[in-house]
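Slide 14.
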Amino acid sequence: MRATMRATALILALGGSLALAACGDSEVAQAPAKTAASGPVLVVRQAEVPNWTAVSAEVATVDQAQVMARIPGILTALSVKEGDYVKRGQAIGRVVDSQLGYQSGAYGAQAAAAQAQAAQAQAELSRTRYLYENGVYAKARLEQAQAAAAAAQAQVRAAREQQKAVGAVAGQGALIAPASGRVLAADVPAGSAVAPGMVIATITSGPVVLRLDLPESLAAKVHPGSAVRVTTDDGTERTGTIARVYPSVAAGQVRADADVPGLDAALIGRRVAAQVDGGSRKGLIVPADYVVTRFGVDYVTVKPKQGEAAAVPVQTAPAGEAGKVEILSGVSAGDMLVKPAAKSGAPTKGGAAQK
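Slide 15: predicted structure.
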């Protein structure tokens, strides 16, 4: 009796072990789901894919004009602030040197004294000429009086020119905008002492561009005409092209300017996320509607040469073309993909859920 019970228990234990083993195998390895291949078939081919590289970029202008002080003195007025728009030739401030007023007064007094001496010399010349004509003075005395009158007139002209020069220097105290644009910086407050060459304000000049700082290793692959992608703060993506590459290297970086239509010029100097086309490579590009997303995993339907089609998980990345994605892993060139049926109910990479 005991032997029979032991045999029965052994049989039950073996049966339970086999059942558990079968359940474990089904959880660990699952075969790809078989699906009906009813949609259009696409043969995966390798294609040239742009090699996009993330780079540092900022919104800038082609040039920046600087308003500098041309004479030493006191900044008595500055009529602009950051963000104001100015026109070329517009007066935006004034620098005054108080010493120029004293110099102008001194040269004015010299001019008046020279004018008085010139009048006296002219009167002496008239008297000498009268006496010469009446035989009283010799011709040498007349020539001496003529030379004295000419010298006095020259002194008058010199004093007046010196006075004009002082006035011209004082006129250089006016701060004139060298170009039309927006004021980026005006950090010097009115009342400050300034020196010649000191920057009073900085003004944008020229069209708005996207200024890129490229790694030195990427400089040989980027040239005028290379594509650029920009993502703004609101998520909008814009495309443009490289306009110029500067022929110099600074701190291991090469500077380049890109023309991007629709770039917001409200904040000059703002950093944005940008990518530049650094050449091409081989990749697998397929239409986005051939890829279905289920529970956060992307799938494509692969049709083998023999047998039924199966859903295969793949890893994807955005492609440069609209409506297409790049498959990084999961399929190979030559595989045949089947477009999912419209009734699958899963969202495609194109964005709309199929029902």
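Speaker note: The first helix runs from residue 2 to 28.
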